[in-house]
Amino acid sequence: VIALAVNQLGIASIFNKQYEADFNEGRPIGDTLRVKLPHRSNIREGLLYQGQSIDRRYVNVVADQVFGADLDYDTIEKAIQMERSPEELDANLFKPVGQQIAQEIDSRAALYAYRNTNNITGQLGTTPTALSVYTGARTRIKECGGWETASRVGAFITPEMMGTIVAGSSSPALLSLFVKDVDKAFRKGYIGEYGDMSWFESMSLYRHTTGVITTQATGTTVSGAGQTGTTLNLGGTTGDTLLAGDTITIANVFNVNPMTRRSTNRLKHFKIMTGCTFASSLG
Fold this sequence. Notes:
Elements: H1 2-6, H2 20-24, E1 32-37, E2 57-62, H3 75-81, H4 86-116, H5 131-143, E3 154-157, H6 159-166, H7 182-187, E4 193-194, E5 197-201, E6 221-222, E7 234-235, E8 241-242, E9 247-256, E10 263-271, E11 276-277
Parallel strand pairs: 3-5
Antiparallel strand pairs: 1-2, 4-5, 6-7, 8-11, 9-10
């Protein structure tokens, strides 16, 4: 069943699994793996040695989601109703269970990406009709470090989004841009490669509903200078809400390319991890 599930993965198949073996080989490490992040040096000028401390940074990978699907059968079931051949067992029992497990894995992968990906393009609740929305996503990823070391890169969109692009209502018309994938677009209704990404249709994606901010431009401000860490004190209008999954920007806080260490001149997007309701008004 597990093999059947793994072979049907979509979104989860793109996830980085290079540390999976650390949980399965050697002595047990518990449910948490500390993954080291690459050291970042400062470049010196001239020939004079300038020693730097090693910057020890890491993230924790936690194996905290255990789930499965179980089947019960008794002696009467086995004697009278149970499928006899391996082919029947695969078709009627094992394959459907494997498909459901694969869907659960994919849904959880999509939920993780939805909750933890901060950069966004396009407009919520609107199916993109312009390729610039998708190329805009690629641009942001490249500006923030890209995917040069990734073994696979995938763009997962809904069937409605794929249909809008392939049907020719996109701007510019998609079919005029492709030669290699025209057959797929006409015969199967989807495209295979664009923008250095493999494209896939998925029903595992989540639709986001935003909180309500009465005056977005000036109604919410950072409350207190010099804040650090993963929380941010804000001031806003009583009753306004920020929901988990919302994305905000802060004036004059820009994305920085990790290699050049220079601003990309695009406001940095911050993901709201825990929803909140403003309890007091400004002023």
